[in-house]
Amino acid sequence: MTASEFAFELELCAHLERRRSGIVARQLGAGIADPGGRILDIVRVEPGPSFDDRIAITSESIPEAAIESAVGTGSARYWKSAFDCHPDRARRATERALEIGFFERERRTGREYVRQVARYPDWYGRLVGIENKPDLGRPGDLEAQLRTDVSLALVDEAILATESYVTRAHLNRIPDEVGVWRVHRDDSNATVEIEVVREPESLPVDEPGIEPLEYRPGRTDVAVVDPEAKARARRRLAERAYGKGWRTYEFPGCGSCRAVDAEGATVPDCTWKGRVVNANSDCGPACDGYEPATVPEVDLERERDRQTAWDPDPPGKRRRQSGLDRFG
After folding, report:
1. pLDDT above 50 for 2
2. Taking a C-beta distance cutoff of 8 angstroms, is the pair 44, 127 a contact?
3. Confidence at residue 325, expressed as pLDDT on a 0 to 100 scale
4. Would you put residue 264 in left (φ > 0), alpha (ψ -120 to 50) or beta?
5. Which residues pair with 220 in a beta bridge?
6. In terms of pTM, does the model score above 0.85?
7. Best CA proximity match to 306, nearest among 249, 254, 266, 268
8. First vs last Cα of the chain: how many Å apart?
9. Nearest CA to 188 among 265, 273, 262, 277?
10. For residues 181, 187, 189 and 191, what is the CA-based torsion angle, rounded to 10 degrees?
């Protein structure tokens, strides 16, 4: 019997985190013309040449508008004149950049001036998108999703991960550029092994992409996405992955649920259902196995810190010059 997609996703994320370098995140939007049109189950961000510099700045995602602004590390600039976007968006980006430590500020004659605490680094390399489909007998929109990944080419590699035995018929329905993994799970010790059925091909991330928007009988509406828009979307995807990670789940307040180790990660396991559960959809008084109890104390942020290079409380590069911190 295949695992639920939720359990499959968590265990695969844990395995990738332990066995490969970089950042692992899940459930991230990968559309550009239609931002919510494509959600990637798993994204793995390989480290770039200045990965350590990114770690040192902040543990959070840096706003896109703050990165693209004319705010630099030299002389502080009046915040309004540093943005080429709506003032409300500029204000939100400024406040968030100050909050997470990417900007610092000073005031001159009643005006707020900002500068970056460090130059935005070249911190990420290849982006790998992984679509989880434990049971290929229930493919859903799998073919259309993978064709979107290939035609848009936002990620460097697209991979299908499944527990099913992969036949030639399966491979014929999947774009040739998509890699295929068969994931073998051992429930006795909560481990995962990956069998590479087909290696992924590199996608043309530096070229224009085609993003399907709507499928209609006899036609498909598409958007042509230029390389510059793709580059911005790739940076946004990497930033969201860095700040979010993959431990975004909760533990239910139920006596049937326990915190168990899976590939070095703590996940919510239900003894009544006999599997890892999603507290938001699988648990609650409507479940016959529900027993009200205290939510297990699990510090997922500390666990991420322990398992990866990500730092929840980096030293930052905030300058300590006279007058800069009196208004923070």
Report:
1. no
2. yes
3. 42
4. left
5. 215
6. yes
7. 266
8. 55
9. 262
10. 10
- pLDDT on residue 323: 38
Q: What is the pLDDT of residues 232-270, one digit of tens each?
A: 999 999 999 999 999 999 999 999 999 999 888 999 999
Specify whether the CB–CB gap between 45 and 241 falls below 8 A: yes
**285-320 residue pLDDT tens:** 999 999 999 999 999 999 999 999 999 999 876 554
Any residues with CB less than 8 A from the CB of 171 and at least 6 apart, and which?
A: 180, 197, 198
Distance from the Cα of residue 88 to its chain's centroid: 26
Contact yes or no for 146/162 (Cβ under 8 A):
no
* Domain residue ranges in the chain: 63-116, 257-301
Comparing CA positions, the residue from 244, 245, 257, 242 lying closest to residue 291 is 257
Residue 190 pLDDT > 70:
no
**Can you give the pLDDT at residue 102?**
96
Q: Which residue has the tokens 């996608």?
A: 203
Backbone angles phi, psi at 278, to 5 degrees: -95, 110
CA distance to 81, 100, 103, 168, 313, per residue, from 328 (Å):
20, 12, 10, 61, 18
Spell out where the chain has E strands. 23-29, 39-47, 77-78, 103-108, 111-116, 124-132, 157-162, 179-186, 191-198, 209-216, 219-225, 257-262, 265-270, 275-276
Task: Report the pLDDT averaged over residues 184-199.
Answer: 84
CA–CA dist 17, 24 (Å, integer): 6
Non-local (6+) Cβ contacts of 40 within 8 A are 27, 28, 29, 30, 129, 130, 131, 149, 155
